[in-house]
Design goal:
There is one protein chain. The protein is mostly helical and about 190 residues long. The protein contains nine helices and no strands. It folds into three domains: about 50 residues, Orthogonal Bundle (Arc Repressor Mutant, subunit A), CATH 1.10.10; about 45 residues; about 80 residues. It is elongated, with a radius of gyration of 27 Å. It starts with 16 loop residues before the first helix and ends with a helix.
Length: about 190
């Protein structure tokens, strides 16, 4: 039986520490993939001795149940493509999951400047229709805030927003010209 915890309380789970660690890890891994650091934290919270935790975590990594590199790569791509996060924001989220810098750097390799600009443009294009009723300066300010919160640099935000505003203004001018042309042709036809 493991020694009582230093705080004087009872351990959360009685039994062989390796069996307890294995059961905790398997239960957590049924929910979703977890990093080695996330599992180690959970085992510490359950007061599993470090040597038992290390034994189980090493074995799980050996058989492929824990693969930090694969988790990092998948997570980075999902966060970038689906949530529209920049590499900087993705790196922060990966650090929160306890991944080391080499693993993070490798996972971020597919996210280059062109993919960031494309993701930022798609994000702004998706969010802009809800802001159409606002002044262009307010729209731009809100888009800068959105891109900043998603981790994009000021340079990318400025490029994307400037291009979008000029495209939007050009579209409005073309629509106005079309309506003006359309109105005059209607009066000619009806007259």
């Amino acid at each position: 039986m493991p020694p009582p915890p230093e705080d004087g309380g009872q351990p959360d789970l009685p039994g062989d520490p390796v069996s307890v660690a294995r059961a905790i890890c398997l239960r957590l891994l049924t929910d979703r993939q977890r990093t080695r650091a996330e599992l180690a934290t959970a085992l510490r919270r359950k007061r599993v001795p470090d040597d038992a935790a290390r034994t189980v975590l090493d074995r799980f990594a050996e058989v492929g149940l824990i693969d930090d590199a694969a988790i990092a790569e998948n997570y980075a791509l999902v966060q970038h493509r689906q949530r529209g996060l920049a590499a900087r924001a993705v790196a922060g989220k990966l650090r929160q999951r306890g991944l080391d810098e080499d693993t993070i750097r490798t996972a971020l390799m597919p996210i280059d400047a062109s993919s960031e600009q494309a993701a930022a443009s798609a994000l702004v294009a998706r969010k802009l229709p809800a802001l159409r009723h606002l002044e262009p300066s307010v729209q731009a300010r809100r888009m800068y805030g959105l891109l900043g919160r998603r981790g994009y640099s000021a340079a990318i935000a400025s490029t994307v927003i400037t291009a979008l505003i000029s495209h939007t203004e050009h579209s409005l001018i073309n629509r106005e010209e079309w309506w003006a042309t359309d109105d005059s042709s209607d009066s000619d036809v009806s007259g």
